[in-house]
Amino acid sequence: MGSLNVMKHAMVPVHRLVPENEEEKILESLGTSKNKLPKILKSDPAVEQLIEISGDIKEGRMVEIERESPTAGISKAYRLVVKR
Amino acid sequence: MMRKGISKRVGSITFSYMSPEEIRKLSATKIITPDTYDDDGFPIDMGLMDTHLGVIEPGLRCKTCGGRVDQCSGHFGNIELAMPVIHVGYVKEIKKLLRSTCCECGRILMTDEEREEYISSIKHLKHLGGDSLDMRALTKKISFTAQKSSVCPHCEAPQLKIMLDKPTTFREDSRKLTPKEVRVRMERIPDRDLIPMGMNPDVVRPEWLILKVLLVPPVTVRPSITLESGDRSEDDLTHKLVDILRINQRLRDNRDIGSPQLIVEDLWDLLQYHVTTYFDNQTSGIPPARHRSGRTLKTLIQRLKGKDGRFRQNLSGKRVNFSARTVISPDPWLSINQVGVPMRAARELTVPMKVTTENIEVIREMVLKGPEPFDRGKYVPGVNYIIRTDGRRIRLTETNAETVAEKLEIGFTVERGLMEGDVVLFNRQPSLHRMSMMAHEVKIVPGKTFRMNLAVCPPYNADFDGDEMNLHILQSEESRAEAKVMMMVQEHILSPRFGGPIIGAIQDHITGLFFLTYQNPLFTRREVVSIFSNLVIEKYPESVTLDDERMWRGKDIFSTFLPEDLNTEFSSSICENCDVCKGIECDKDAFVVIEDGKLLSGTIDESAVGAFKGQIVDKIARDFGTDSARLFIDRITRLALGVITLKGFTTSIEDEDVPREAKKQIKDILLEAEDEVRKLAQSYNDGELEEMPGRTLKETLEVMAMQRMGKARDNAGKIASKHLGMGNNAVKMARTGARASMLNLTQMAAALGQQAIRGERPSRGYEERTLSHFKRGELGAEARGFVKSSYKDGLNPVEYFFHSMGGREGLVDTAVRTSRSGYMQRRLINALEDLMVYADESVRNPADTIIQFKYGEDGVDPMRSIKGKAIDMDDIITDLKAFKRGGK
Prior knowledge:
- The complex is a heterodimer.
- By secondary structure, chain A is of the alpha+beta class.
- Helices cover 25% and strands 30% of the residues of chain A.
- Chain B is of the alpha+beta class.
- Chain B folds into six domains: 86-208, no CATH class; 235-317, no CATH class; 323-498, Beta Barrel (Barwin-like endoglucanases); 508-646, Enzyme I, Chain A, domain 2; 653-811, RNA polymerase Rpb1 funnel domain (Topoisomerase I, Chain A, domain 4, Orthogonal Bundle), CATH 1.10.132.30; 834-888, no CATH class.
- Chain B has 27 helices and 32 strands.
- In chain B, the strands form eleven sheets. Chain B has a six-stranded mixed beta barrel. Chain B has a four-stranded antiparallel sheet with strand order 10-15-13-14. Chain B has a three-stranded antiparallel sheet with strand order 2-3-4.
């Protein structure tokens, strides 16, 4: 029995692991640095799901969250993966 | 003023504990005697009021710095404690340290390798931008893991469980640890072992958590007051320090003469008690120290904490000058962005004016007139104070006006009274949203109350049953400019709360405009003149000629005030939501169409111009600017008052009269419903009722009964409203949205209907019944709070009781809701107060960390949004239609 895949749930927005070579470009476009990003726990169910797909995710990697919104169309947010 | 060059900048601040050495170094004098003043009333040396600690009496000089009362802010002293005591504020840290270190060797209860690993994980967290909260969580976790080991990995000594007897006593397996022993243990902990436990050994040592020396605050912090009788009354802190000194002395004496251990320990505990209450007099587990009168003492923590503490009382909020407060009253002759200020207040409140080469003669003229000038009985601003370049204030009086005016120089500041047109802030508490404090222009009025236009009542949530409001006078050019641009009432017509107008016509305004526009009535010349005598108009309405008489149509009169290129359509409040909407052809005159600023059809009521709903107000504010919107509101409200004054309007209890046949029908409906509920209860008792999915049998019955009763009231209401037509004034108010609702009328005319407690039929009171008049287990309508009477008929005693139950619940709910939502709001404000939206639309905190990548995830300003949405397609389409017609 596989555990629940939260990513498939309608209420969970699309999570994507940002490839390391894209990180710098995104940070520059946001005008910020990694330590100023909001955080996401490595133990977050969504991140755990990402780990299942792409193998271990080290602390300090970035996750992109794509949300659909009635007013903004698609809004992107970024999170820094941290361990508690 | 010239800004002085900043030569140094604060890079960082470190908070730490104070070492005994530091306290001694800081101390101006040692305090040894508990006495304060000698017989002549002079402070005793080395006493608590020693002049080395600063002075509070005028005339004396501080022995430390030589300053007088206003020059010397005071100096600290110190008390050498005979025996060490535990600092209440630090018990948690001490407990953590005791538990996670070895009782023998003082090392942290983990191997060196583990320790180094944790140190590097702390460094890593810092690197990733962890804040103090993250840090606290991590070090807490580390200490917790250390506490788990029962044997020291360094010296193999077994570890006993350390318990804390609240508030300040530590026990190791029921053996009491004296503060002295605790201190020795703290001293043994090596520097490097402190890092994993969250302490920085560069600035702090754990033994400082146990007090050997007590810092005595300067006398300026705890001034004594001299009563009229000449008696001195000391501050609570001084009282507490006297207690500490007394016990400290007795403890020292007893220890030195070698008294029995028991006596010394008792005194030691007493000293601990006094020092504990000196810091926090509400420590749980010990009785608070009291004044002779029985009042609890206000010691250090009490000075800071809570609503009356330093932070919330004196730092987050302060009493201010240049403000006034009085009762408010309505004044329809004011514009919405004016405020009427009574003359007495205007004389007292001042605005500073800098004297320059440009204005010196004008100001001299003003000064010459003195503090209370009049021009042929009319108010003229006076001058109250002149501030010279050296900072001296001169109060202007009738007598010195001439001499002061002569001496006026460039660079002086003159404080003049309020003038018409001054920009001031007007506020009503509770200030729940930004519209609770808006900028108004001053208008001087007679009387003693502040006056305001009725259309600004909704944003302030004000009425005139005795409400008071505050007025603040802006004191600088910058603040005035800023207030004018951002805080003027007209800038707040659109609310960020729901993206619509919050300022608009209310009550009589709506009724008035309804009379003007419903069914497009005709007005004679006399009537139009009477209506227009209320306002200044720029253009005249078109007239029609009927039977050789010039007449004016209401809709044409209203159109006079609409911008020329306004196009919009929507349905009025009176719209009955027919199955097929006939649009412009509506026979109820409920569909508003405005083409090129002409009202072609529809009734102007709440959904056109009302506060919260007014679509015309909304559109004008959005498309024609806030100034046009302000003018529009000012004019149509006065127009409405003109119309309603002409027509006259009243409502009485007769408006709720319904014909006898209708009464009969209503009664039949209610009886039928009652009967059905009785049947329901019967089938429930017979076990014939079927359960609804997810509900018990009982719940099913209750839900069905509630539904049936709701339906009964609606039907009764329908019968009643059938007989209450648009010719009825109460109905006019309800339908147009001016006041009350159809439900209110139904309850007055037909029946109150089912009363509910927590959304259910009343069920508690006596055993298995609500009142002793009913049989046990009775489930019928009457026994469960159904009210058949109307307000007009009056309720019978049983109904009255059920109605009171519902009413009480409402009261309790509001009381609970306000306090709860107030607290929630306070927490939200504290959490969000210093977030900012940056130029790239990101929301960040002062540490520059990102909270939202784009404000609200869509970057939409809720105030400029259309009901929360970025664009309104319908609106764009009407505009396009107008364009096609050949408009602009």
